[in-house]
Design goal:
The complex is a heterodimer of chains A (about 280) and B (about 400).
Chain A: H1 12-20, H2 30-49, H3 53-71, H4 75-80, E1 97-105, H5 109-117, E2 129-134, E3 139-145, E4 151-162, E5 166-171, E6 178-188, E7 192-202, H6 206-215, H7 220-237, H8 260-268, H9 272-282
Antiparallel strand pairs in A: 1-7, 2-3, 3-4, 4-5, 5-6, 6-7
Helix pairs in contact in A: 2-3, 2-6, 7-9
Chain B: E1 2-6, E2 12-16, E3 28-37, H1 41-45, E4 56-57, E5 61-69, E6 81-84, E7 87-88, H2 94-97, H3 111-118, E8 124-125, E9 142-145, H4 148-151, E10 153-154, H5 161-164, H6 170-179, E11 188-192, H7 196-207, E12 212-217, H8 220-228, E13 233-236, H9 242-249, E14 257-260, H10 271-280, H11 289-298, E15 304-307, H12 320-326, E16 329-332, H13 337-349, E17 361-364, H14 368-377, E18 385-388
Parallel strand pairs in B: 11-12, 11-14, 12-13, 14-15, 15-16, 17-18
Antiparallel strand pairs in B: 1-2, 1-4, 3-5, 3-9, 3-18, 5-6, 6-10, 7-8
Helix pairs in contact in B: 6-7, 6-13
The chains are: A alpha+beta (about 280), B alpha/beta (about 400).
């Protein structure tokens, strides 16, 4: 199945092409309709309680989404030639959301590959990842905190890897979140290593859920960027900088204590050796 | 503990807040012996710096003794007397390893806010808005110093606070401004702004070989200090046309390099505000971006314009064509403080400079609100205010200090 392949192409075009063959007035997928209706309702509710300009604007948007959810018709999709009602044949193909992010880390591809290849290291810097448990040489079990505090779980397998260069994984059938991704380690002379992550996934709730995530600031692309930055910080400085828990003159005198978790993780991380190698690599 | 908190425009208060704690392995906690109000703190005081939140602890010029260290700190011990750069830097990223400490890639936890505005994130700063990291500042009895193994610099016990405190910001800032001018022996350097950074730029320019320094301001106290302490020739911009005067003084050539130690008040950063101010101020008295325009216009062909003054995001009516046609070089940016502390400390130890000359006011931390007001209004001949946490307040309602638990 070549659809498993994680490439740098934008998959939206393919989805749009599917839409052109559809003659029905309904052009919004089933899961997406439900998400539209729920999201739309939430926005209208928000508008009723927050009668600010922003609240009213979001309320109007919500009303539109409610209509979209109820009827399954979207004018915006129609004008763009997009149709998500004809779902792709298998829901196990990760193609709804495509993300590419990169960061430069002062270390060698070899060291970074070795750190990343041990997936159990990943929750140390991936904020929403609860745990990764190794099942065998290529398979692992992932637990993450999904939207609304709900835990999502999946099994993943490494289906392609080149030592010190790249690791590619995909979720196995039956996952809460169908996803496929790869991480690439490219030597960047004088700068360390370019770490590039490519991720394709189908969010629970379809594209509309992705849209709402964007609207409320938890867009997965940002999350990847955020986590990559934490990876860099941890490797380069042996800790993840924070201000959580510092004093201020605010009523809630200490800032949200939630952040302490990451620091405990950071302080336990035995990356001194790695960081030293990183510094030597960059020097 | 007691700390100076930002509570809104023209509203700073000394409040009782929790003591800082070690949060990361490379942290240290410093008990502050002296702290100062910086000119850039006035941008916060004036309420124009975005991403400030009520209750934020201010202050980025401070020093004191180490009272606690994180598990990864091996080069500091409890009791060490240290000065702390206002820029927070990890010491290990691409930028730190190249001496570009204020461009540290790792020290700003709110890098995404800075990136969305500036494209890239500079280093974190103490007590200087959430965009710059949201770190609690050092106008307090105690302060947490992240990356203290590279950020806290030990100073000898025999040098008093007043001589070494300004290693944290304004001395290196003035020095870097002069160093950026690539001064050749005998050069003429013109400096706009005779606040504390301008005063240090004057002294540094002479230390680096300038033959002549011309200082420009309209505050007579500051011009007097520039002339008497700094040995600069001074020009009051209310009395004359600076461009023509500089041209006359330099035989038509113009200064070899020009330093803008004024910067742009945050209230001038929006395009329309700048435009309005530029239209209104046909003379340079209040029109601060005019200082930079004038530096560009006055500078000799092929000269250097060095900018230690803080700027925001956009400038209007920026004479880029003038800069291009004259082939000017621009040097600017937040100071790479870490790199200057040791060499400048040596200058102080060898008696080549005594930075305490800029101090006009010594007050209790409890009187911070008065200190900000005096510094802002430039009343009482104020040039530089330092604050001592232990000092008794002169205010009748001063409610003392002490660690809160």
């Amino acid at each position: 199945m070549d659809t498993w392949e994680v490439t740098f192409e934008d998959h939206n075009r393919q989805v749009a092409d599917n839409g052109n063959t559809n003659n029905s007035r309904v052009n919004v997928g089933r899961i997406e309709r439900v998400a539209s209706a729920i999201g739309g309702g939430a926005l209208v509710g928000y508008a009723i309680t927050n009668r600010t300009k922003t609240g009213i604007a979001l309320g109007l948007l919500g009303a539109g989404l409610l209509y979209r959810g109820a009827t399954g018709q979207c004018e915006a999709y129609r004008s763009l030639g997009i149709n998500t009602a004809e779902d792709v044949p298998s829901e196990d193909v990760a193609r709804d959301v495509h993300i590419e992010k990169a960061i430069t880390v002062s270390s060698t591809p070899k060291e970074l590959f070795r750190y990343w290849r041990n997936f159990e290291n990943l929750p140390r810097f991936m904020e929403d990842l609860e745990s990764v448990t190794r099942l065998d040489e290529t398979r692992s079990h992932w637990v993450a905190n999904g939207p609304g505090g709900k835990q999502v779980e999946w099994d993943a397998e490494i289906y392609n890897e080149k030592e010190n260069e790249m690791i590619a994984w995909r979720s196995l059938p039956g996952s809460d979140v169908t996803n496929a991704g790869s991480v690439h380690f490219e030597e960047a002379p004088g700068h360390g290593t370019y770490v590039k992550v490519v991720l394709n996934y189908n969010p629970p709730g379809g594209k509309a859920a992705h849209f709402f995530a964007k609207l409320f600031g938890k867009e997965p692309g940002q999350l990847i960027e955020h986590n990559l930055r934490r990876f860099k910080q941890l490797i380069e400085t042996c800790e993840i900088p924070t201000t959580e828990g510092q004093p201020s003159g605010r009523k809630q005198q200490t800032e949200a204590p939630g952040g302490r978790k990451e620091n405990k993780l950071a302080s336990k991380t035995p990356v001194d050796k790695l960081a030293r190698a990183a510094r030597e690599g960059a020097a | 503990m007691r700390a100076v908190c930002w509570e809104g425009k023209y509203d700073v208060r000394v409040e009782t807040v929790p003591d800082p704690e070690i949060l990361n392995p490379r942290d240290a906690i410093i008990q502050v012996s002296s702290t100062a109000i910086c000119g850039s703190d006035l941008h916060l005081y004036d309420g124009y710096m975005p991403t400030m939140e009520k209750g934020d602890i201010l202050g980025h010029e401070f020093m004191g003794h180490v009272v606690d260290v994180g598990s990864a700190i091996i080069n500091l011990k409890i009791g060490d007397r240290v000065v702390v750069p206002f820029t927070i830097a990890c010491g290990r990223c691409f930028f730190c390893l190249r001496g570009l400490w204020s461009a540290c890639d790792n020290s700003n936890p709110n890098w995404h806010i800075a990136e969305s505005l500036l494209g890239h994130s500079p280093s974190g700063l103490f007590g200087y808005s959430h965009m710059m990291g949201g770190y609690a500042g050092g106008q307090a009895e105690y302060v947490r110093v992240p990356f203290a193994d590279v950020g806290a610099h030990k100073v000898p016990e025999n040098l008093p606070d007043e001589k070494v405190l300004f290693l944290t910001d304004i001395f290196p800032t003035g020095y870097m401004a002069a160093e950026n001018c690539n001064i050749q022996r005998g050069d003429t350097v013109a400096i706009w702004g005779c606040g504390p950074v301008g005063q240090f730029a004057i002294k540094s320019a002479y230390l680096l070989g300038a033959g002549r320094v011309i200082a420009i301001d309209d505050n007579e106290d500051r011009l007097k200090m520039a002339a008497e302490d700094g040995k600069a020739e001074t020009l009051n911009f209310n009395d004359q046309d600076i461009f023509h005067k500089l041209k006359f003084m330099t035989g038509g050539i113009g200064p070899d390099s020009c330093i803008d130690a004024v910067g742009l008040e945050a209230h001038g950063t929006s395009v329309d505000a700048l435009y309005d101010r530029a239209k209104a101020a046909l003379y340079l008295a209040t029109d601060r971006p005019h200082a930079l325009r004038q530096a560009i216009t006055a500078c000799r062909k092929g000269g250097i314009v060095s900018v230690p003054g803080v700027y925001g995001a956009f400038l209007d009516k920026f004479p880029f064509g003038v800069a291009f046609q004259k082939g000017l070089t621009f040097k600017m940016g937040q100071t790479h403080v870490h790199k200057y502390i040791q060499p400048l400390l040596e200058l102080i130890e060898f008696g080549q400079i005594d930075p305490s000359f800029v101090i006009t006011h010594r007050i209790s931390l409890e009187d911070a609100a008065d200190g900000y007001q005096t510094f802002k209004q430039q009343t009482d001949h104020c040039i530089k205010v330092i604050m001592k946490p232990g000092m008794p307040s002169t205010r009748s309602n001063g409610n003392g200090n002490g660690r809160a638990h």
